[in-house]
C-alpha cells in the first residue's frame, strides 16, 4: 500500500506471517540511505507507528522507518504476555527486510527497552542507538516496590479487566519519585476519573499490559552494552522529573557509566497530544544532534 504526500511517499510492508506478522512503514526512498546518513528507525512500545508520525516528518533528509510493535496497531492481537526478546527479534527482522545496512535507531519507553535488547543481541543492526526513557525497575533502589505495583496491576487486569487496570497504571506512570511506603494501600482509583469504563468486557488484548511485567523487569547486559561505546546514547526529557521512565534512563546510564543526554519536553515530547503538548521540532533537532 502506498500513500502519496506532498513531502514523500510512505510505503507499508509486512514481514512474517500469522501471529508473527509485523507491519512497518518506509517514509521516503531506502536507496537514499548512506553509511553516514543511514535509514532512521523510530519506534516505541506499545505505541504504534502513528505516534511517531510527527517526529518522522521532521527527517525529510533521510529515509525513516516506523512500525507497529507486536500485539499493537495493524498487527495480530492476542492475550499472551509478550517478551522483550520477542520485540527485539521483530526489530531485527524488520531491519533485515529493509536490506539497507545498519540503521540509526531511536527507541522510546517500552521501545527503549526493546532497543537495548536489540543492540545486545544484534549490535551489527544499528549504527547509533538512542534509548529514550526506558522504564526499567532493575536499576532503581525501589525495584521491589515497583515490581509489586506491576504485579498488582497484572492481577487487577486479570480479575477486573482493562479499565480497572489502566486506572491503576496511569497514576503510577505519572508518579514523581520512588514508590512511597503504603502506595498499594490506597483505595483503588475509579476508571471514570480517566474517562474509562469500570465494566469488564472480557478482552485481555491490551498491548501495554501484555508487555508487562517483561518490559519493567528486563535486566541489561552491562558488558555488551558498554562494548558499544559512543554508539549508545541514553536520553531523558528535561520535563520528565523523577517519573519511572526518566529514573530508568538515569539508572541505566549510571550502570554503564554514561552521561544522560537531555531531550526537550517530556516522555512523549516527540508528539503532541490533547492537553499534553510536546515539542516535535525541538525533539527532532536534538535527535539530529546526537546522531551526528
UniProtKB/TrEMBL annotation:
This is Putative aminoacrylate hydrolase RutD. Keywords: Hydrolase. InterPro entries: AB_hydrolase_1, AB_hydrolase_fold. Residues 55-172 form the AB hydrolase-1 domain. One of its GO terms (molecular function) is hydrolase activity. The keyword rRNA processing does not apply. Gene3D superfamilies: alpha/beta hydrolase.
Amino acid at each position: 500500500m502506498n500513500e502519496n504526500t506532498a513531502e514523500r511517499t510512505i510505503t507499508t510492508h509486512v514481514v512474517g506471517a500469522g501471529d508473527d506478522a509485523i507491519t512497518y512503514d518506509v517514509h521516503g526512498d531506502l536507496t537514499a540511505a548512506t553509511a553516514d546518513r543511514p535509514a532512521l528507525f523510530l519506534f516505541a512500545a506499545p505505541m504504534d507507528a502513528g505516534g511517531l508520525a510527527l517526529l518522522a516528518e521532521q527527517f525529510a533528509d533521510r529515509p525513516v522507518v516506523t512500525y507497529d510493535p507486536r500485539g499493537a496497531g495493524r498487527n495480530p492481537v492476542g492475550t499472551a504476555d509478550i517478551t522483550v526478546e520477542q520485540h527485539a527479534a521483530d526489530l531485527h527482522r524488520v531491519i533485515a527486510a529493509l536490506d539497507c545496512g545498519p540503521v540509526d535507531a531511536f527507541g522510546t519507553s517500552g521501545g527503549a527497552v526493546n532497543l537495548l535488547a536489540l543492540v545486545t543481541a544484534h549490535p551489527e543492526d544499528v549504527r547509533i542507538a538512542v534509548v529514550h526513557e526506558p522504564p526499567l525497575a532493575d536499576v532503581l533502589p525501589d525495584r521491589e516496590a515497583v515490581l509489586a505495583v506491576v504485579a498488582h496491576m497484572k492481577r487487577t487486569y486479570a480479575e477486573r479487566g482493562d479499565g480497572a487496570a489502566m486506572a491503576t497504571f496511569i497514576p503510577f506512570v505519572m508518579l514523581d519519585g520512588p514508590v512511597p511506603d503504603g502506595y498499594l494501600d490506597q483505595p483503588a482509583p475509579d476508571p471514570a476519573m480517566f474517562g474509562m469504563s469500570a465494566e469488564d468486557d472480557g478482552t485481555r488484548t491490551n498491548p501495554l499490559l501484555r508487555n508487562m511485567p517483561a518490559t519493567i523487569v528486563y535486566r541489561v547486559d552491562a558488558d555488551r552494552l558498554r562494548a558499544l561505546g559512543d554508539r549508545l546514547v541514553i536520553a531523558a526529557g528535561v520535563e520528565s522529573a523523577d517519573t519511572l521512565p526518566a529514573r530508568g534512563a538515569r539508572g541505566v546510564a549510571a550502570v554503564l557509566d554514561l552521561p544522560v543526554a537531555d531531550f526537550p519536553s517530556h516522555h512523549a515530547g516527540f508528539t503532541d497530544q490533547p492537553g499534553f503538548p510536546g515539542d516535535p521540532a525541538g525533539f527532532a533537532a536534538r535527535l539530529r544532534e546526537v546522531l551526528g
